[in-house]
Design goal:
The chain has 7 helices and 15 strands. With 294 residues, the protein is of the alpha/beta class. It has 2 domains: 66 residues, Vcp-like ATPase, Chain A, domain 2, CATH 3.10.330.20; 188 residues, Vaccinia Virus protein VP39 (Rossmann fold). The strands form 4 sheets. Strands 9-8-7-10-11-15-12 form a 7-stranded mixed sheet, with helices on both faces. Helix 5 links the parallel strand 10 and strand 11. The termini are far apart. Bound molecules: S-adenosylmethionine (SAM). S-adenosylmethionine (SAM) binds next to helix 3 and strand 8.
Length: 294
């Protein structure tokens, strides 16, 4: 991904992951490992020939194959991410970060690593002052998420990845935000209540509407959660060329639903007084007591 301080990164470096984009906008993700050979649509080119080029260079391979070379932005990386499980796509990650209110310095729990697409977005959003704990039940998914984060984001000393069954409990306390992306998030709700601080936010991501119903029912039934909202996000790309300006013919019509809830206290309502009552009580407290008749 494009590093935050890109000025000293204007040229391609050994070990960079880069996208080769051909004239038909097809993308090929490759790593510029010194000594390796980059296989590109039939051509084999030593990686050294790309290392040191300016990012964004146009290269010609053979007679007529041309490729633009760029480090992938986050949005470009995720569709190309090595994976064994489904990822959340950038179209939904944007709203998740905003409606989940992920902020720099936040303490975040992520349930279900998959290949680490959301983990990377969370690490970028919380910054070095934040803390992310990700849990996943499968060792192979943990390994893939770890490899992807290391390869595409770099060192993440503020990230812990633990293999555990979230349906049995969550190994953390006092987080600001929890993001849940696994098949039965309603099983995680009672555990989430234990670990999210009052005022915190829970976000669930679900592909089907029966899952949404089960999660929302569980949140409504739990006195530790309120303000439940359900949304989906539609993103339509446009074709803009010469006088042909219109929506693209194809779009990804459905990915998943986003459910957001706030962690609230379960205590009984605290009686509060109106401004008038407060004023009256204050006046009574300072008013001189009537002297008893002598
Ligand atoms: C769809 S993937 C998550 C994808 C991830 N959000 C991303 O954007 O890359 C769901 C993950 O939940 C994990 N999972 C399923 N059941 C689980 C459980 N009981 N406890 C923890 N993780 C679980 C799976 O192993 C899988 O990696």
């Amino acid at each position: 991904m494009t590093p935050p301080s890109a000025s000293d990164q204007a040229t391609l470096q050994p070990g960079d992951s880069v996208l080769f984009i051909d004239q038909k906008e097809r993308e090929y993700i490759r790593i510029l490992r010194p000594g390796s050979v980059i296989a590109l649509r039939g051509g084999n080119i030593p990686a050294e020939q790309f290392i040191g080029l300016a990012e964004g260079s146009l290269v010609q391979v053979g007679q007529d194959e041309r490729f633009r070379i760029l480090r992938p932005t986050y949005a470009r990386l995720i569709p190309n991410l090595p994976r064994q499980a489904q990822v959340i796509y950038p179209k939904d990650i944007g709203p998740i970060l905003l409606w989940g209110d992920i902020f720099p310095g936040a303490r975040v729990l992520e349930v279900g690593s998959g290949p680490g697409a959301l983990s990377m977005a969370l690490l970028r959003a919380i910054g070095p002052a934040g803390h992310l704990l990700t849990v996943d039940i499968r060792a192979d998914h943990c390994k893939m998420a770890r490899n992807n984060v290391k390869r595409f984001l770099g060192a993440a000393p503020n990230w812990i990845l633990a293999q555990t069954d979230a349906y049995q409990g969550l190994p953390v306390r006092e987080v600001d935000r929890v993001l849940v992306d696994l098949p039965e998030p309603w099983q995680v709700v009672p555990h989430a209540r234990e670990v999210v601080r009052p005022g915190g936010v829970l976000v669930g991501y679900l592909p089907t509407v029966l899952q949404v119903k089960s999660l929302v029912d569980a949140l409504h039934a739990d006195p530790g959660f309120a303000c439940v909202e359900v949304m989906e996000n539609m993103l339509r790309f446009w074709h803009v060329k010469d006088r042909s300006i219109r929506p693209e013919h194809r779009m990804v019509a459905h990915t998943g639903f986003i459910v957001v809830a706030r962690r609230v206290t379960e205590a009984a309502a605290i009686q509060v007084k109106s401004e008038k009552q407060v004023r009256q009580e204050a006046q009574q407290a300072v008013a001189p007591q009537n002297e008893p008749d002598s």
